[in-house]
């Protein structure tokens, strides 16, 4: 009798869930008894960590050939409703057909999306974002078209709303992307009193120095209260003239987490056990941005990041297959943490540690590490043998990986 593993989402966690499950099934010589199926709109991996860069339309990786070679079935469509008690999913295919897909094990890896608070007038209508490929392409077209507008403070000012990881990377990259403007003004706005509050105090002096060198202005301690076609208004009462407001402040896990019973965290992620199972839903795993998973076995949870999604996917896929094969499941663990932040033409900064977040390297060497991660490390191999070999869910040592990357690029 066939065993069916269904994965919702073709992001980093979804892709590596499928490859990890296939690897274990093949090792057990049970390929004919299993079906692995991915549900997503397209068989492509959007390089979401890179959407702050230019040439957004190129930041996709086609997965069709890899899926075929690995015997992973792909269904183009959108999962609309999960039926945990029936172990099935209602799916609307891209051709508009509604279908019901059963599963023996389900891995929810449908990612997250940016939060646009309805309490901010005009935000939905007038702000850009770089949360998805279409939105990044839309922003790029807008930036390239600014020179067709009459010169004005509104035209030449770009306001990045949110002074966290994404906002900083975008703000640092923008001076290079809007060189066509005579006097571009980049303003980074954050409602917290400090720059990059989640990144800690360690890298803050480096980030501040880089933004100053790039000419990026920072307005902190005042959030956005309104957006219109020509300006943003801050909680301080200040009004900044701009035709380009880019919202980067906060994300929330896929709404599909609301359809699965069990507790969720502030990001709407499902709490999972050490094996990434949702304890209150038989046969369901959560992975990537959908999972609130303890990374170090203590108090630190995995971040909604590519770094953690890659390993969360490997473990979820392995365990879903292992359960059906009657094999021992393994715990998810990423006890060490390093953060690599791009700072545009200035360079980058790498900081390490869950709590202390001390700077390990900055400037040009850090930039080479970041470039290698963005352009090489996060892409799945095209060769199926290499891809399956890379899907083993061994414990990730972020410190060791960082040291290796420095040797590779240095």
From TrEMBL:
Swiss-Prot/TrEMBL keywords: FAD, Flavoprotein, NAD, Oxidoreductase
UniProt GO molecular function: NADH dehydrogenase activity
Domain FAD/NAD(P)-binding: 4-311
Source superkingdom: Eukaryota
Keyword NAD: yes
Similarity section: Belongs to the NADH dehydrogenase family.
Protein's UniProt name: FAD/NAD(P)-binding domain-containing protein
Organism in which the protein naturally occurs: Aspergillus nanangensis
Phylogenetic classification of the source organism: Eukaryota, Fungi, Dikarya, Ascomycota, Pezizomycotina
């Amino acid at each position: 009798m066939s065993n069916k593993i269904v994965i919702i989402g073709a992001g980093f966690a979804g892709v590596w869930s499928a490859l990890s499950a296939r690897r274990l099934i093949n090792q057990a010589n049970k390929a004919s008894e299993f079906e692995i199926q991915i549900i997503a709109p397209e068989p492509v991996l959007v390089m979401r960590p890179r959407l702050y860069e230019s040439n957004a339309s190129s930041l996709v990786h086609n997965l069709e050939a890899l899926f075929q070679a690995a015997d992973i079935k792909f269904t183009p469509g959108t999962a609309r409703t999960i039926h945990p008690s029936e172990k099935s999913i209602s799916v609307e295919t891209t051709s508009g057909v509604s279908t019901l897909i059963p599963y023996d094990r389900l891995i929810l890896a449908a990612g997250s999306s940016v939060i646009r608070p309805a309490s901010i007038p005009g935000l939905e209508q007038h702000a850009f974002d770089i949360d998805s490929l279409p939105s990044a392409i839309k922003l790029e077209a807008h930036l390239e078209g600014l020179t067709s507008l009459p010169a004005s403070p509104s035209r030449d000012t770009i306001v990045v709303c949110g002074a966290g990881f994404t906002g900083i990377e975008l703000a640092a990259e923008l001076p290079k992307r809007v060189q066509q403007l005579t006097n571009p003004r980049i303003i980074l706005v954050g409602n917290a009193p400090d720059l990059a509050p989640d990144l800690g105090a360690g890298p803050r002096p480096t980030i501040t120095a880089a933004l100053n060198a790039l000419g990026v202005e920072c307005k902190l301690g005042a959030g956005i209260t309104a957006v219109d076609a020509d300006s943003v208004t801050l909680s301080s009462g200040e009004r900044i003239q701009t035709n380009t407001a880019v919202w980067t402040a906060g994300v929330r896990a896929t709404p599909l987490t609301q359809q699965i019973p069990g507790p969720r965290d502030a990001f709407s992620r499902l709490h999972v056990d050490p094996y990434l199972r949702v304890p209150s839903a038989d046969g369901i795993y959560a992975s990537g941005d959908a999972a609130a998973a303890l990374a170090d076995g203590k108090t630190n949870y995995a971040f909604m990041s590519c770094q953690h999604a890659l390993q969360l996917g490997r473990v979820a896929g392995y365990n879903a297959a292992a359960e059906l094969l009657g094999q021992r499941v393994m715990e998810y663990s990423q006890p060490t943490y390093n953060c690599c932040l791009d700072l545009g033409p200035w360079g980058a900064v790498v900081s390490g540690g869950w709590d202390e977040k001390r700077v390990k390297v900055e400037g040009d060497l850090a930039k080479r590490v970041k470039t290698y991660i963005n352009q090489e490390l996060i892409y799945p191999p095209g060769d199926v043998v290499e891809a399956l070999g890379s899907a083993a869910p061994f414990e990730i040592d972020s410190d060791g990986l960082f040291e290796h990357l420095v040797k590779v690029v240095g």
